[in-house]
Amino acid sequence: MNNAEILKRLENKGYIAALLPVSFVGAAKVEVERLKAENELNKHQTAVVSRYSFEMPDSFAALSVLLLFAPTARVKLSFTQKGRTSFVDMGLGYDDYVFAPKAADAAVADVLGSGARFEAHNNFPMKILAALSGKCEYGRNNILYMKESLGTKPDFGCCFHIYAYYTELAADESAPAKIGRMERCDSCGRCEKACPTGAIMAKTAIINTERCITRYNEYGSRPLPEFITDGAQNALYGCNRCQLACPRNARLSAPQRVVDFSESETAALLGSADFSALPYTLRLKLSELDMADYLEPIRRNLPALLRQSK
Question: Is the pLDDT of residue 255 over 70?
Fold first, then answer.
């Protein structure tokens, strides 16, 4: 089976795939060092890129990196309080952090067998490699957008997860794509206008994460900064405003999953009980939505979202 057939088989399983020569990992490292040297990053961003791992497998000589792009669902949640039901966006790209990687692993194992023996996790620079692959380009909001989509799937837009695998397949040597933002960003500015905290800047695709809602909205129970008001929040965690304002996302499908939380489930979710003490059916629902690890930010963010929906 040649490389084209491998990529086609993965496409038939619902993924867009790219096979990159292992030299692209070195190119990603060069890009990280460039960012550091040119002082484009703030302290938070510097800490993020400093954690990138360029570890190579030691059990075999890797010849390539297989990138797998998986479309994510758009999930809307309903919560009932005092007989009134409010709808809340879960947050684009936050579904399937538990089950989707397992499905990707299974797809790769089925197509390649033992050909992909080392998965790159966590601190592997997947976004940078995705940009270098030429399959993606940045928006002004520093979010990656797919240049293409599968004919059998809705447009990916920016709603996808990336998985990476070292393989023993010989990939065609090619030059990495130039990393840049979409040409339309130069004359658009919709995401910049949509951002309620001024995190997006006109002249660069590096955003000010010190002002980005997502940085604060998805972690912990600590109070949010004063500049994140009730009206600024718009998703259970993360932030959708710049993404939904982007014309490149105009062809995204409507929410593909709507999940209801009853009045008793909403009360339990907003209570103080540990996850293990929640009712079994609620724990099952949260686990299926990959929400089990987000109890603290949910309990902080959801009341504000419910207040502004009244």
Answer: no
Nearest to 257 by CA among 299, 290, 280, 289: 289
Whether residue 125 contacts residue 63, with contact meaning beta carbons closer than 8 Å, is answered with: no
E-strand ranges in 116-226 read 116-120, 136-138, 144-146, 160-167
Longest Cα separation, the chain: 62
Backbone dihedral region for residue 233 (phi beyond 0: left; psi -120 to 50: alpha; all else: beta):
beta
Better-predicted residue by pLDDT, 203 or 146: 146
Instruction: Look at residue 220 and tell me whether its pLDDT is greater than 80.
Output: no
DSSP 175: P
CA distance 174 to 301: 46
φ and ψ of 54, to 5 deg: -110, 30
Q: How far apart are the first and last CA of the chain?
A: 57
What band does 151 get if pLDDT is binned at 50, 70 and 90?
low
Domain boundaries defined on the chain: 3-72+95-167, 183-308
Q: Which amino acid is at 213?
A: I
Q: What is the pLDDT of residue 98?
A: 75
Closest among 221, 256, 214 to 71, alpha carbons compared? 256
In sequence order, what are the residues at sequence separation of 6 or more whose Cβ sits closer than 8 angstroms to the Cβ of residue 54? 25, 26, 28, 29, 124, 125
